[in-house]
Amino acid sequence: MSRNEKMKFVRLIEGSDLRISDSLVKYDMPRSTYYRWKRKLRTQGLQEGRNTLVAARRDEAIYKSGG
Predict the structure, then answer these.
(1) 8 A C-beta contact, residue 57 and residue 14
(2) The most confident of 11-15, 29-33, 36-40, by mean pLDDT
(3) What is the spatial distance between Cα 5 and Cα 43, in angstroms, rounded to a whole number?
(4) How far is CA 46 from CA 2, 22, 40, in A?
(5) What is the torsional sign of CA 62, 64, 65, 66?
(6) What b/e readout covers 35-65, taking b as 16+ CB neighbours within 10 angstroms?
(7) Engineered SS bond to 51: which of 24, 28, 45, 47, CB 3.0-4.6 Å?
């Protein structure tokens, strides 16, 4: 799975109305894999001079607020 696909999956789980554990069961994803991807994406984002997960959350919050 590409880095972009992993990032989309992490955002999908974080944006779900379900608890993370319930979302992971729904998508048959081991918790360890999800948290490893999340940690790695955050680390890579910081190494590149930006935190991709924070940016994704900000964009999602702006979208949800209609702004």
Answers:
(1) yes
(2) 29-33
(3) 16
(4) 18, 28, 10
(5) positive
(6) eebbeebeeebeeeeebbbeebeeeeeeeee
(7) 45
Count of domains observed in the chain: 1
| pTM of the shown model | 0.63
Residue 66, amino acid:
G
In which domain, by residue range, is 35 found? Answer: 3-65
- Tokens representing residue 65 in the block: 């607020």
Question: What's the token pair of residue 37?
Answer: 């991807």
Residues 6+ apart with CB under 8 A from 51: 42, 45
Distance, CA of 24 to CA of 49 (rounded, Å):
29
